[in-house]
Write a structure and sequence with these properties.
single chain; 9 strands; globular
């Protein structure tokens, strides 16, 4: 599918949108009486979003989380480089504060992420391989141990694959991979389980929802790695698939759902962990763009939710101003100068067509 849509094709897609996505429709007005967390829960889904410090500096934004979210994912607070800017200095405050907020509001908490090869600070890269191995074990033991019994789900290992690094099975390179080879993944899960036997442990990967070369190769890598982990009796309980949807690239939602179903049959829980829609390829007109973003949300979720083991959906932030795409736009890293609109709420925190599309998909799920 190509995101470079002609005006005629765009208008055709808009005409085909269900009436329930228009803010003036009766079903949309009725949806105002509900929240996404409740709608999702009735479909057997735990719904939430990632968050960082902005929820404490922006009261209106914070209220969106309090109303709509049943789970919070730490955006940056538990990433290695944020938590350990220096070898002997730990910065616990952002994570402690975010977790306390979730607990006050009766929300679950998803810890993101213990081990990721892409966020190693400079001090870690200067260590010997033996020292890196010691830091690896120390980090997992200390972080998981500190929050034992309070964090429902851990993204134990994030994004283990990247074909561009040229490693066997397309594994992502970095200090952890260099120190242990592929076995770092199993080691991380076993140590995390020992530190908190009650936590659900997840392997989180990107791009698998796409059907371009990277998506295909990452799916193949995940099949291989998860098979290895399960054969070894590794305590992996769930798989996270990020869901940063890229309409400008090839995708095949039914194929992705079939891919998920294979893991579900193996007894794993399945989570969509970082959901948003890249709107760069869509028209400039906000109404058209929002309608097409909504259409993509609905088509993806409607298909993915046919897999019964999918029981969690998490947006990556909740409102457009705090999207990671907005951050890239401010740094001039996007081709377009317009403000990205990838999330369910706009810059005024009003519900967008994407919100109604998600609600429609949750309501349409058939429970077994």
């Amino acid at each position: 599918m190509n995101g470079n849509l002609s005006r005629r094709k765009t208008l055709g897609l808009l005409a085909a949108l269900p009436a329930g996505w228009r803010l003036t429709s009766a079903s949309a007005r009725a949806a105002e009486e509900d929240d996404l967390g409740s709608i999702a829960a009735r479909a057997g889904i735990v719904y939430g979003a990632s968050a960082a410090g902005e929820i404490f500096s922006d009261a209106a934004y914070r209220r969106l989380y309090e109303r709509h979210c049943r789970i919070i994912t730490s955006d940056v607070a538990l990433k290695f480089d944020w938590l350990r800017p220096e070898r002997k200095r730990w910065d616990w405050l952002p994570a402690d504060r975010l977790l306390a907020f979730a607990e006050r509001n009766g929300m679950r908490f998803r810890g993101h992420t213990l081990i990721w090869n892409e966020n190693a600070p400079g001090w870690l890269k200067k260590l010997s391989l033996a020292e890196i191995r010691r830091v690896f074990d120390e980090h997992i033991d200390t972080v998981v141990g500190r929050y034992a019994g309070r964090i429902a789900v851990w993204d134990v290992v994030n994004e283990p694959f990247w074909p561009g690094h040229g490693n066997p099975h397309d594994m992502r390179g970095g200090p952890w991979y260099e120190a242990f080879g592929p076995s770092y993944v199993e080691r991380a899960f076993r140590r995390a389980h020992a530190a908190d036997p009650g936590a659900q442990l997840a392997l989180n990967e990107a791009h698998c929802e796409g059907d371009d070369e990277v998506g295909q190769r990452n799916r193949a890598g995940m099949k291989w790695l998860v098979g290895e982990l399960l054969d070894a009796g590794t305590p992996v309980h769930a798989l996270g698939f990020q869901g940063h949807l890229q309409p400008q690239l090839p995708f095949d939602d039914p194929l992705f759902a079939d891919f998920l179903a294979e893991f579900g049959k193996a007894g794993l829980r399945l989570h969509i962990t970082e959901l948003d829609v890249n709107d760069e390829a869509y028209p400039d007109a906000v109404s058209r763009r929002d309608a097409l973003v909504a259409r993509r949300y609905h088509a993806f979720l409607k298909t993915v939710l046919t897999v019964p083991q999918v029981d969690m959906v998490v947006n990556w932030q909740l409102a457009d101003p705090y999207s990671w795409y907005a951050g890239m736009a401010r740094r001039g890293l996007l081709a377009s100068r317009r403000n990205p609109r990838p999330l369910p709420f706009d810059r005024h925190y009003a519900r967008k067509p994407a919100w109604y599309a998600m609600a429609r998909a949750f309501r349409g799920r058939k429970r077994a």
